[in-house]
């Protein structure tokens, strides 16, 4: 029997943040993890995918060349690219390791956890009784119900980064951010790629911004099939065949499932613990407490948006509540998201369509294009724009598509979270020349009609000028 203050179940982004914060503040912490330390983000998600994307970007830079620099076909060693991915994971892993967390004072148990009662968990031969529990078990890839899938070899984000041989033709089911990112990366690394999306690729995003991304993928040779569901799968070691709803077939050497993720709830004993849940995730209050008052939940397991940065933010809320005893709630917050393609697509707050539905005629949409950004022009990267949704002088959403959009969206995340007026962005002094100026130009565009197209203001200015000696 182990008795502790806090038992954290899951050593992904959210769980590690809770464990590290609580232990360093003096709480006794037991951390239980049945898989790899660092969870999905480190081992099969954010980190390996961005490492692969970086290698693909380097290959594409050679292929494109630059004015005065001749393009050339890159010589790609796919196994070495895979070694780069593994090296990046290995370089980050010590920060998430069992040794580090034991050094912080946590008791780490490497086993699957299961509630045996509302206040006890069994794991690795231990019974753990805690004053508070935190569920942070993350999510798992969804395997869709398609005829023949049981007999068809497939990859998910949890297995594709183990490939050492380049897929000859990668067929991807799912046109969301994960599918689209990996489609472009593998195409740039020399694979043929086909993406099949039953609805609309990047359908959650602003259509105008998504179109720039999808047009770029098509230009690079990615085949996109939209509005077609896969009704049957077949294949083996020699290749796979996907049959579409219209009867046509799509063949390839490898199949990647990128059809979404589902909260990892299996085997947790939630019923024994008195924790209400649905297929989407654990039911939580705004304070992230479950129906068992001793148990909190953070991250993907809550059934909300599946972002590492959201799990980290939620971890801070739980720490304030259960370690410091302070009131804290996960109220409405603008959570940014990024699709790491080229061009990148970043969003925070409401899209234009969402803002029009909520705010109607009170909405003003202001924008600026990268074609007029001097830094973008110097680098030959003038495609893209920043679009800001404004209500009563304050931003309620921002969309950026273009180079480094994921970096540029941070300013709008702050502006929306802090309820800053657009004038605060417009009056900020930014270094020149930088891509960040596109945000200031978009903010300034909101005021331009009020300053330069105002007849009354022109008369006032004329009156002032006529009176100046």
Rg over C-alpha atoms, rounded to the nearest angstrom: 25 Å
Number of domains: 3
- Termini, distance in Å? 89 Å
- Report the portion of residues in β strands: 15-25%
Family: Belongs to the class-I pyridine nucleotide-disulfide oxidoreductase family.
GO molecular function: oxidoreductase activity
Domain FAD/NAD(P)-binding: 5-315
Protein name: Dihydrolipoyl dehydrogenase family protein
Write up what this structure looks like.
- The chain has 15 helices and 21 strands.
- The protein has 469 residues and is of the alpha/beta class.
- It has three domains: 2-141 and 262-322, FAD/NAD(P)-binding domain (3-Layer(bba) Sandwich), CATH 3.50.50.60; 149-259, FAD/NAD(P)-binding domain (3-Layer(bba) Sandwich); 343-452, FAD/NAD-linked reductase, C-terminal dimerisation domain (Enolase-like, domain 1, 2-Layer Sandwich), CATH 3.30.390.
- Strands 1, 2, 3, 4, 5, 6 and 16 form a seven-stranded mixed β-sheet that branches. It has a five-stranded antiparallel β-sheet with strand order 17-18-21-20-19, with helices on both faces. Strands 10-9-8-14 form a four-stranded parallel β-sheet, with helices on one face.
- The model has no long low-confidence stretch (mean pLDDT 96).
- Residues 335-442 form the Pyridine nucleotide-disulphide oxidoreductase dimerisation domain.
- Keywords: Disulfide bond, FAD, Flavoprotein, NADP, Oxidoreductase, Redox-active center.
């Amino acid at each position: 029997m182990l008795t502790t203050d806090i038992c954290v179940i899951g050593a992904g982004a959210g769980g590690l943040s809770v464990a590290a914060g609580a232990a360093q503040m003096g709480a006794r912490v037991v951390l239980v993890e049945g898989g790899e330390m660092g969870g999905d983000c480190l081992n099969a998600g954010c980190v390996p995918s961005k490492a692969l994307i970086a290698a693909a970007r380097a290959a594409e830079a050679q292929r494109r060349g630059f004015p005065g620099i001749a393009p050339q076909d890159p010589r790609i060693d796919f196994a070495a690219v895979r070694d780069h991915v593994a090296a990046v994971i290995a370089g980050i892993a010590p920060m998430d390791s069992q040794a580090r967390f034991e050094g912080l004072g946590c008791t780490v148990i490497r086993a699957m956890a299961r509630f045996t009662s509302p206040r006890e968990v069994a794991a690795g031969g231990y019974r753990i009784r805690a004053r508070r529990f935190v569920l942070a078990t993350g999510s798992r890839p969804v395997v869709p119900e398609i005829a023949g899938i049981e007999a068809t070899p497939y990859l998910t984000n949890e297995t594709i980064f183990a490939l050492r041989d380049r897929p000859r033709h990668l067929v991807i089911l799912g046109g969301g951010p994960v599918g689209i990112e990996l489609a472009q990366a593998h195409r740039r690394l020399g694979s043929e790629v086909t993406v099949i999306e039953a609805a609309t690729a990047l359908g959650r995003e602003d259509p105008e911004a998504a179109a720039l991304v999808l047009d770029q993928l098509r230009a690079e040779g990615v085949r996109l099939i939209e509005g077609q569901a896969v009704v049957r799968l077949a294949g083996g070691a020699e290749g796979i065949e996907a049959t579409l709803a219209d009867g046509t077939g799509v063949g390839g050497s490898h199949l990647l499932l990128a059809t979404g993720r589902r909260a990892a709830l299996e085997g947790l004993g939630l019923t024994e613990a008195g924790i209400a849940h649905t297929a989407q995730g654990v039911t939580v209050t705004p304070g992230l407490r479950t129906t068992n008052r001793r148990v909190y939940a953070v991250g993907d397991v809550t059934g909300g948006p599946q972002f590492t940065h959201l799990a980290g933010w939620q971890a801070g809320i739980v720490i304030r509540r259960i370690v410091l005893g302070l009131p804290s709630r996960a109220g409405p917050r603008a959570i940014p998201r990024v699709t790491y393609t080229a061009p990148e697509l970043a969003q925070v707050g409401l899209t234009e369509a969402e803002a029009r539905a909520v705010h109607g005629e009170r909405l003003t949409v202001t924008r600026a294009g990268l074609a007029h950004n001097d830094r973008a022009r110097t680098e030959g990267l003038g495609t893209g724009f920043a679009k800001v949704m404004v209500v009563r002088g304050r931003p309620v959403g921002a969309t950026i598509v273009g180079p480094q959009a994921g970096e540029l969206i941070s300013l709008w995340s702050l502006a929306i979270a802090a309820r800053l007026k657009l004038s605060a962005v417009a009056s900020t002094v930014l270094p020149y020349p930088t891509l960040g100026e596109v945000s200031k130009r978009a903010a300034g565009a909101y005021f331009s009609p009020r300053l330069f197209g105002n007849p009354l203001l022109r008369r006032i200015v004329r009156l002032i000028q006529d009176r100046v000696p």
